[in-house]
C-alpha cells in the first residue's frame, strides 16, 4: 500500500502544481488513498520531496534527487529553498534550531539532510521548526554559521 501511495504521490506532483501538504493529502484522498497529514509528511520526507521551481518557473513540490531544469543542479534549489523559507537559525550545545515559515520545515529539513547529512546525527521537522542534533558543540556552531550564510 505504501509503495503504491508513494508512486501516486510522484505521479501527482509530476502532473499537478501542488504547493502544500494539505493539497497533496486532498489529491491522494480523491485518488482513493485515505491518508492523514502525518502520513503525507512522512511520505514527503521519505521521497525527498522539496519545494522548488520547476522548468516552467512554477513553485511546487518536486523531487530532490533530480535537477529541476536542464541548466540548474539540485543543490542550488536547496540553497534557494533555505534562503527563502528559513527565518532564523541558532544553536545551543550540540543542537541547532531552525525556524521556518509555517508548513516549510519538512521541505527545508530534507534539503538540510541532503546538504549536511554526514555532519549530523539526525534531524526532526515539525510544521515550522527543525531540530538538528550534531556530535558536539563545535559541529553545531560550524553548521549554524553555514546555514546562516544561506539566509
Structural commentary:
This protein is of the alpha+beta class. The chain contains 6 helices and 6 strands; from the N terminus they run αααββαββαββα. The chain has helices at about 1-15, 20-30, 35-45, 75-85, 105-115, 135-150, and strands spanning about 50-55, 60-65, 85-90, 95-100, 120-125, 130-135. Strands 3-4-6-5 form a 4-stranded antiparallel sheet. A hairpin with a 2-residue loop joins strand 3 and strand 4 (about 95-100). The longest helix is centred in the first third of the chain and has 14 residues, at about 1-15. Mean pLDDT is about 85; it is low at about 65-75.
Percent in strands: 15-25%
Straight-line distance between termini: 39 Å
Most strands sheet: 4 strands, antiparallel
- Per DSSP, the total helix count is 6
Number of strands: 6
Mean pLDDT: 87
Helix content: 40-55%
